[in-house]
Each structure stands twice: as C-alpha cells, then as structure tokens.
Amino acid sequence: MLTLTLPAHGSYVEIVRAVRECQVQIRIMRDSTFDSPVLEDDYSHARGRDEIVREIDRLEEYRQEWYRFETDSCYIDENGEVC
Hints:
Layout: E1 2-7, H1 13-21, E2 26-31, E3 38-40, E4 45-47, H2 49-70
Parallel strand pairs: 1-2
Antiparallel strand pairs: 1-3, 3-4
C-alpha cells in the first residue's frame, strides 16, 4: 500500500487534495521526524510536492487504463482497434 508521510508542521493542502481526488488507495500519515513529504511503497518513493503530485497523476492514469481493460465493454476488435 502507498503511504504519504507528511511532516508534522506545515500545510500540504495541494498534495492531500490530489490524494483524495485520485481513486488510488493511499494512506496519509504525519511524522515529526520528516522534513519534507514522501510518497512511498515497497518499490519506489517520491519526495517533494511536485514529484508526489506527478506520481499520483501517473498512478491514477494507470488505474484508469487498468479498469478500462478489466471491463467486459472494452476489447480489441479484429482490426486491432481498442474501445
């Protein structure tokens, strides 16, 4: 699971809004030992506002593509066209 750790001080409204608007499950925590926000899982991490927002956007695009092909209404026809 992705975890967004925010420093205990400061306001990170833009990052929190991006997390809440995307449909990717991300846990949000505060930690007084952190000096900048970090988004991480077992395989990667993003540090800082711009990098985190870009990663959230990338994950949301991936999620949308994944669900697109997981539905019965989307397929590749005999001409190679995608729904």
